[in-house]
Amino acid sequence: MTIRLAIAGFGKIARDQHVPAVTASDGIELAAIADPHGGIDGVAHYATLDELLAEAPEIDAVALCTPPQVRGALAASALRAGKHVLLEKPPGATVSELEPLIAMARQTGRTLFAAWHSRFAPAVEPARDFLAGRRIKSVVVEWKEDVRIWHPGQAWIWEPGGLGVFDPGINALSVMTRILPYRFFLTRSELSFPQNRAAPIAADLVFSDEASTVIRAEFDWRQTGQQTWDVRVETDAGLLTFAAGGRRLLHDDRVLVDEKKSEYRLIYRRFAELIANGVSDVDLSPLVHVADAFLLGRRRDVEPFDEV
Ligand code: NAP
Fold it and tell me: What's the CA dihedral at 252, 257, 259, 263 to 10 degrees?
């Protein structure tokens, strides 16, 4: 049976990744779009999700690609209308808003899927397999990119709930929570806030685990030139380098993975499997680490940030 999908929030990620992934996937078709601005030719368009749900009852599933601040309320409407729901990352603006949604999905027998796209990068599962059972000596994460390139004109990202540099940083956390063999917890957080913004532009984080491993993570949006999305894990068997956001994986100098990413194709494959099996998949651990970073965060004021 083909899944008739609606996308709510038709901005950069919906256009760049969701539409091509759905178009290339068997068993799922884009049937409607809800967005205040517009959609694409040949696909029914509604200004709001409520209108879409009222006027297009044949829709089976909704992918929520809006900014996170409105995601919880939209997910509740979609589940209430009996739809399966895919949540872009981060799954919500708070941790606590997710619990009623998980309960609602269970009660209505619908699938709720918190899609962590970086976990679908080709290096993730090989890294997890390599690290299983190893002694970890240290972990260094560098997730540094140029906000002007990746988020031009996105005011919401600098507002409360928009997460600032944790918008990309949560991708690193989604990878760390998947590949590291032990649970880890935050011990120090320093957050750099531009004087004219309500969200951080950089974060220096230190985590530890049961074995007192030092895990450092630096997220920074001020990087120009080469962009860095790397995790380096020193182990008893050598250095494992997860590079280029998971496109590459190296063990010391040996290349284990060097592949193009197809994260969103795999996200939709997983969504279809979850729907077929009647189950949900909502791992909140990356969002919990972000919440901890704000709870423990020492605030540093840095120079104002302007787009140009
Ligand atoms: P975006 O370009 O700002 O697009 C968001 C769209 O949602 C806008 O058209 C916005 O309209 C619309 N919208 C806002 N509230 C809505 C509502 N209540 N109902 C329907 N549509 C609504 O943002 P984006 O970059 O696509 O990011 C969206 C989400 O995807 C974020 O959570 C982000 O973390 C995640 N994501 C983004 C990327 C990326 O590379 N950009 C990558 C992976 C994941 P208005 O502009 O009028 O508000």
Answer: -110
